[in-house]
């Protein structure tokens, strides 16, 4: 089989075979983990010429190359860099492209820490930021200024799960000469490849589905040919790097990501469908459900869904929701997601929205459905609703 044949293989096959070369590592299936900072050179001429592949541990090792090479293949990217967290990936992507005096547009449904970084660090650096309705689509062209440099998307939106017309937003940004950045943590390149839809830079909190086991913090940023030189330069100049053991765990998790995602998707849809039948639930916010307002966009652009979604309760006291969640046996209360375990949080989008309003009278509960049996998770939630109703009726 030729290299071209391998490039067109199914994503499961590429995840199993990409980023490794057993023949180059004495036949071992997995690449070795290089613990190292210093790299030596055979002579002064080689040292000064820059022709040696590796120069210093922070600038890359065979271990980091294995992970970034596989990620670049998955995203169809010119290159990928690694960052020590998802938020670091976000800040790296934005600061690679925007400078003092530039204007940046960010979806109003973005991950909360993205907003805090933009409103704090970016504005302090002289970069102006505005937020836009995530459902604006091609209408974002009306918000462009002469100095608009970056448009940031996230689909679906964090916590509230609005779908965006990513190709339309990206086309409008490119017509204006701006870059498009997308947080693709929810879908991963297994279910959506942003660069194929006009996005210039796609990032993930690899802490979530790439690692998959809730034991490593990492972010990844992939760029097309247009944005790669800027991303590569900023990443190197800012001194960002990840430890070799974390990189190894991320690579290990990536091998099974597609298999895990399929299970997350199947179980989450089972739980979400059941929640739609509950009288305590006002609405379920899952793009793969036909009831979701962005379902048509999801069907058009995405090939799957992950395990993260939200639901909105009927109007009730917060203590009733707390009674439900506090007693759950299989859903932990935690702000992360993407691991093998199920999690839940209560959120209030009204605290951070500026371009849109959140007027739901009930409480927003976000669930991450892990790898447990969905029937057990449903039974756990059913018991939670019993506790909720006891408080409401008490």
Automatic annotation (TrEMBL):
Its cofactor is pyridoxal 5'-phosphate. Pfam families: Cys_Met_Meta_PP (PF01053). InterPro entries: Cys/Met-Metab_PyrdxlP-dep_enz, Cys_b_lyase_bac, Cys_met_metab_PP, PyrdxlP-dep_Trfase, PyrdxlP-dep_Trfase_major, PyrdxlP-dep_Trfase_small. Keywords: Lyase, Pyridoxal phosphate. It catalyses: L,L-cystathionine + H2O = L-homocysteine + pyruvate + NH4(+); an S-substituted L-cysteine + H2O = a thiol + pyruvate + NH4(+). The keyword Lyase applies. One of its GO terms (molecular function) is pyridoxal phosphate binding. The modification N6-(pyridoxal phosphate)lysine is found at residue 208. Residues 1-24 have a biased composition (Basic and acidic residues). PROSITE patterns: CYS_MET_METAB_PP. It comes from the Bacteria. Pathway: Amino-acid biosynthesis; L-methionine biosynthesis via de novo pathway; L-homocysteine from L-cystathionine: step 1/1. SUPFAM superfamilies: PLP-dependent transferases (SSF53383). GO terms for biological process: L-cysteine catabolic process to pyruvate; transsulfuration. Residues 1-31 are annotated as: Disordered. Belongs to the trans-sulfuration enzymes family. This is Cystathionine beta-lyase.
């Amino acid at each position: 089989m030729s290299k071209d044949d391998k490039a067109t293989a199914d994503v499961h096959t590429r995840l199993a075979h990409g980023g490794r070369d057993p023949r180059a590592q004495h036949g071992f299936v997995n690449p070795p983990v290089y613990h190292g900072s210093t790299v030596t050179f055979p002579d002064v001429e080689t040292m000064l010429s820059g022709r040696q592949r590796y120069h210093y541990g922070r600038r890359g090792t065979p271990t980091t190359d294995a992970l970034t090479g596989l990620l670049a293949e998955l995203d169809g990217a010119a290159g990928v860099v690694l960052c020590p967290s998802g938020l670091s990936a976000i800040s790296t992507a934005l600061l690679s492209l925007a400078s003092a005096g530039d204007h940046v547009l960010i979806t109003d449904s973005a991950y909360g820490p993205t907003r805090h970084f933009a409103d704090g660090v970016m504005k302090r650096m002289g970069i102006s930021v505005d937020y836009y309705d995530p459902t604006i689509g091609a209408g974002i062209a009306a918000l462009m200024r002469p100095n608009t440099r970056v448009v940031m998307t996230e689909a679906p939106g964090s916590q509230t799960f609005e779908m965006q017309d990513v190709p339309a937003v990206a086309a409008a940004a490119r017509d204006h000469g701006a870059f498009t950045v997308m947080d693709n943590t929810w879908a991963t390149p297994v279910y959506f490849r942003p660069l194929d839809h006009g996005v210039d830079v796609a990032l993930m909190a690899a802490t979530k589905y790439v690692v998959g086991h809730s034991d490593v913090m990492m972010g990844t940023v992939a760029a097309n040919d247009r944005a790669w030189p800027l991303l590569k330069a900023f990443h190197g100049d800012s001194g960002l790097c990840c430890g070799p053991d974390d990189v190894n765990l991320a690579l290990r998790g990536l091998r099974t990501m597609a298999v895990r995602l399929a299970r997350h998707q199947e179980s989450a849809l089972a739980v979400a469908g059941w929640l739609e039948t509950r009288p305590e639930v006002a609405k379920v916010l899952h793009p793969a459900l036909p009831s979701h307002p962005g379902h048509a966009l999801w069907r058009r652009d995405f090939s799957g869904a992950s395990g993260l979604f939200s639901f909105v309760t009927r109007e009730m006291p917060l203590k009733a929701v707390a009674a439900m969640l506090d007693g759950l046996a299989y859903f932990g209360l935690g702000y992360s997601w993407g691991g093998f375990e199920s999690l839940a949080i209560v959120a209030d989008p009204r605290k951070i929205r500026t371009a849109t309003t959140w007027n739901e009278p009930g409480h927003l509960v976000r669930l991450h459905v892990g790898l447990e049996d969905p029937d057990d998770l449903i039974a756990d939630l059913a018991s939670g609703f019993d506790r909720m109703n006891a408080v409401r009726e008490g």
